[in-house]
Design goal:
Elements: H1 7-25, H2 27-37, H3 39-67, E1 72-75, H4 80-102, H5 104-108, H6 110-114, H7 140-150, E2 154-156, H8 157-185, H9 187-195
Antiparallel strand pairs: 1-2
Helix pairs in contact: 1-3, 1-8, 2-3, 3-8, 4-7, 7-8
């Protein structure tokens, strides 16, 4: 049955997406972009470009998930489906809260674009967020995304591939993300990391 679906094509597309996304997020590419286009252009536009590229390049993955042949694996029956839908709704609210805590416009790169000051010789200092959802887990956006993905009422082979690919990619990404945070915040982040679970509240491995 799996062979009659787009399962492996979707996993492959997510792998390619993850490779491209990781390359654009790497310090080496950022340094080359700053050297090629100038520090002013880099500070003002790179995060916006990164967000736009991430969104646009994920569209083909979603298209493959929708258009390739598929088969249903299971459907959550009533009344349990109402519980899963409720948790999915809470997950969406959690995503909104988490993004707002770190700053929506900054997250997308809009703040860097609009508030850029060419007279400023160094970027504005970053703030380490330790309150709200970040008090319970180090990556609340990923926690909420996982809840939303895996509690979908109807699971198909294509959706399973999408969920698996996104889950693995995001989890691997936490290691690279935290490496940058340690470089940026040093001991403060190391202490926070030692006290706060990565993804699941209350679970420290």
């Amino acid at each position: 049955m799996m062979s009659e679906t787009g399962f492996w094509w979707i996993l492959l597309s997510i792998g390619l997406y993850g490779a491209l996304h990781s390359i654009l997020a790497s310090n080496r590419v950022k340094q080359r972009a700053a050297a090629r286009f100038g520090q002013d252009v880099y500070q003002r536009y790179y995060r916006l470009f990164f967000s736009a590229a991430g969104g646009l390049t994920f569209l083909p993955v979603l298209a493959l998930t929708s258009l390739l042949p598929d088969h249903t694996l299971y459907t959550i029956p009533s009344p349990w489906v109402y519980l899963t839908l409720g948790i999915q709704g809470l997950a969406v609210i959690g995503l909104v809260i988490g993004v707002m805590q770190t700053g929506v416009t900054k997250f997308l790169g809009i703040q860097q674009w609009l508030s850029y000051d060419p007279q400023r010789t160094t970027p504005l200092p970053e703030k380490l967020v330790l309150t709200g959802l970040y008090r319970w887990v180090r990556h609340p956006l990923y926690t909420c995304t996982y809840l939303f993905l895996w509690l979908t009422p109807v699971m198909t082979w294509n959706l399973l591939a999408l969920n698996l690919g996104v889950t693995i990619y995001m989890y691997i990404g936490t290691f690279f993300e935290e490496r940058k945070l340690v470089e940026q915040f040093g001991k403060d982040y190391e202490e926070y990391r030692a006290q706060t679970p990565r993804i699941i509240p209350g679970l420290r491995l």
